[in-house]
Amino acid sequence: MGSALAGIVALLIILWFMHKHVQANPTGMSYLLQKGGGILAILAAALVTARGELAVGLPLAFMGFGLLGWLKTDMFGMRRRSARITHVRSAFLDMEIDQATGARVFPSQWQPL
């Protein structure tokens, strides 16, 4: 009887989480997952480093700091590229795609015969 009750309670909790997941704001969810992942990575790095595995713990800690936004993106000589713009032309469409922000579409000069 006790295991059936525990199973029903677990099912209700799972259904409640599924309902909340469907209604969740994607921006808030990504922010929460990013910060939670950063904290989890730092905790895992601390535990791994405490066991003596510095070669595994240090990159894990850097990943956690990066997820939390505490590291600059141009660290270690990595620089951001300037915004690139790609031009695509066809018989029906003339499109300019800005790689950083999205796409802008311009109608072409094509006229039907």
Give a short synopsis of this structure.
By secondary structure, the protein is α+β, with helices and mostly antiparallel strands. It has helices at residues 2-23, 26-50, 54-68; strands at 85-89, 93-98, 102-107.
Describe this structure in words.
The protein has 113 residues and is an alpha+beta fold. It has 2 domains: 77 residues, no CATH class; 33 residues, no CATH class. The chain has 3 helices and 3 strands. A 3-stranded antiparallel sheet has the order 1-2-3, with no helix packed on it. Helix 2 runs antiparallel to helix 3. It starts with a helix and ends in a 6-residue tail after the last strand.
Descriptive tags:
113 residues, alpha+beta, 2 domains, three-stranded antiparallel β-sheet, 3 helices, 55% helix, flat
Describe the protein's topology.
Layout lengths: L1 H22 L2 H25 L3 H15 L16 E5 L3 E6 L3 E6 L6
Antiparallel strand pairs: 1-2, 2-3
Low-confidence stretches: none
Approximate shape: flat
Structural class: alpha+beta
Q: How many domain regions?
A: 2
Number of strands: 3
Largest sheet: 3 strands, antiparallel
Strand content: 15-25%
Q: Taking Cα atoms only, what radius of gyration do you get, to the nearest Å?
A: 24 Å
**Main sheet: strand order:** 1-2-3
- Tell me the span between the first and last alpha carbons: 78 Å
Helix run count: 3
Helix content: 40-55%
- Overall residue-averaged pLDDT value: 82
* SSE series: HHHEEE
